[in-house]
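Usage

Read records sequentially. Each one opens with the input sequence:
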Amino acid sequence: MKKILLLLLLVQTSLAFAINPVNSYVKLTVKGKECILLLYNKTPQHRDNFLKLVREGFYNGTLFHRVISGFMIQGGDPDSKHAAPGALLGEGDLDYKIPAEFNDSLFHKKGALAAARDNNPEKASSAAQFYLVQGKTYTAKELDRMEELKFEGEKIPAYQRAIYEHMGGTPFLDHNYTVFGEVVKGLDLIDSIAALPTDSNDRPLNDLPMEMAILTPLATRKLEAELKGVPYKPNIFRRFLDLFAK
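and closes with the structure output:
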């Protein structure tokens, strides 16, 4: 009897692990093109809020309403769902803010997912609006000057400098807006949206509604295997667990 109970407990624990993966991912789709967003565990309040809104379907039908080539694409304004063509957007939000969660290891490289905000002194984030960084590449001299003028002599870590020099980003936003995730697949979605024509308020001339969905545990395991460059080959025990995971 004890062995049966122990086996049941082991299966229950294993199922809980299967249902709750370590990392959370969201699939973002815009006009048939998609990317996958990893939400950082180092920013738990932003992660949990974003997951809640995605789970509720909040973002479905909202627009990328502010697009600036070489900078970023911004969306999530609740007022954008039923906005008239050409209407000025960007002021909509929910009735709460998310406290800033700055972390020196999380920075505005190309593909970074970050929270928009107004000019509040606490630098608290919008509950809904976010942006994806396109940015541009910087020379070593440009980064040196940014350290001197923008960061008051504080040094940008060497590995971050290398990314800003070769991959690009928006380093001048670091320590001012919370970065809480990144694109891990489908980075070209940002470039394709950033290249579209916009009006004088940076709103795309043609609406860009989005759809979001949280990746299931099984889809998460397959994605992480793909990102590691290895095939997804679960053992017998994992195959059993996969029967209970979507």
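Summary fields computed downstream for this record:
- The first helix runs from residue 2 to 19.
- The helical segments are 2-19, 44-56, 140-149, 158-166, 188-194, 217-228, 236-242.
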